[in-house]
Amino acid sequence: MRNPIAERIADFLKHYPPFTSLQYQELVTISEQVKVIYLERNQILFKIGDPTHDSFYVVASGAIGLSVISDAEETLIDKCDEGDILGLRPFFAKNNYLMTAKSREDSIIYAIPIEVFKPYVTGNSNVLSFLLESFASNTRNPYDKDHRGKLISENVLFNEQTATDIQYFQPIKYTKKPITASPNDVVKYIAQTMANRQIGSVIIQENQMPIGIVTDYDLTSKIATGLHPIDVTVDKIMTVPVVTVPEDISIAEAQMMMLKHNVPYLCVTRDGTEKSTISGIISEHHVVAAQANNPGVLLKQIKRAEKSKDLKVVRDKLTDLIQNSIDKNIPISHITNVASEITIAITKRAITMAIEKEGPPPVRFAWFNLGSQGRKEQLLLTDVNNSLIFEDVPADQYDKVQKYFLRLAERVLDTFEKTGYEKSEQGLNANNELWCKSLTDWIKQYNTWINTPGEKGIHRSSIFFDYNFIYGDPFLEKALTEEIFSKAANNQLFYAFLATDAIKKPAPLGFFRQFLVEQDEEHKDTFDIKNRAISPLVDAARVFAISKGITGITNTYQRFKKLADLEPQNADLYLECAEAFHTLHWFRTEDGLKNDSNGSYVNIEELTKVDKVKLKNCFQPINEIQDLIKNRFQLTYFT
Known about the structure:
By secondary structure, the protein is of the alpha+beta class. It has 24 helices and 21 strands.
């Protein structure tokens, strides 16, 4: 029998995410349980501190304001219009509402019962992903003309005691002694442990390193459904691989990793990789309990972007976020980690937009960010470097396939330029046929760099050893990485040339400890912080990391941290280099934001005496790490 009211509600919902991911009949079934709420102007739907309701809400008409209490005053932080969702807290947390929802005009609200909607969430990953992003995303106040488009952290003036506006950059609190099991343990007993301990997951480990995870969802989808008997060993049903993160991960970074990998749990390890000992576990509850707002809104806006100008809006907001974080002395590691995830998302969206215009790729391919983007260190709008690999094709198809990817890359780079980035002046981009070729040709190229290094070529080629796989088929990245490290292993000639290049720029202090400043007219009397201070540390980290076979870590700071773990005898020096790199990166970013530049040249006269001392203290580790390079790679034989 028809239900015209339910059909009318379903006809409304079908136009708005996440309901767009559901079948119409599913929407009708849900709508039959929906309660219609009429609110007069200034009527409260829920307020701060109220116990969570058994429903979440969709605005059918009118507008609902979301506000918090800041300095004893109610401050509007967002406004929900027709089709917007609010009140998702009961979906993800048991504690009370953190905001007040009040109608700004006469409004009609649809209340959707949580229990009615839950089956559609667990059965549809698109719906779940949307709800997670909606709940965790930071939002903006479009009605505040002074802060239009700014993040909540810039709109709301929280005091230093609460520090709520920057809490999403603070290290997240997590369970530090998680329950673990071995792959041969029986599921039945693991399930009993989970029930007794009232936990939702168990990490599966070998030699104290994570190899998988079993969650409530694994038990319900693989055991309760009869797919596997309950007496099988857990390796038959565990989720692999487990997503790992480092110990000092911030709230924002944890949220982004969950959204990026679409997982409800993160495994904390000593160095953030699966080849390190387990330190703890982070669940959605940890993230939800820690914060209500973070830069996740930028990720959502990126996914919705249709044009280059949409991505430019996001990149401009990222600059605002970086500036705001610098002003508040947020650790530079947190800033770069969050910024790099947003940059990666921009790159992915630029590629998908290009594919939509150029048509489906003729073969599998992989896109790599290189240089500072490849190392996840880019904060300023500097130039971009990238490369593209496509799978091997017959010789008679090569030119046609390559031309497709060159056109694709040109579209991507055009989007980058409109977003605010610059193309490489050296042509180190994927629209150059030298850096857009087949897997076999790329392997030949790397073999040339590794087996017959030349002093002229090694400097330019070094950037290609700082790559980050962004989009496409991971098989191509894996094949290339395995080939590179196989050929580089114990290749003393290659290390020697790479190391020689790494010590070409000595520590930038004169005999009397004065700064070595530039003499050319354009940058006269300024200090080249990029080439004289940052690059020597980047180069040193690279040569040591490659020589130690460190894969999956290209970030300079993280490379030094990993080296400190691998070489306890040199740990102090590596850690000093890591901290020096962060300090230099901070100086460059602050100067670049201040002067709307790439931050490469710092005016020493504008620095305070304290800042000059901080800067000079970064130079001693450069001297010491270069001495270690000379001794480690016996460079006297190559001078």
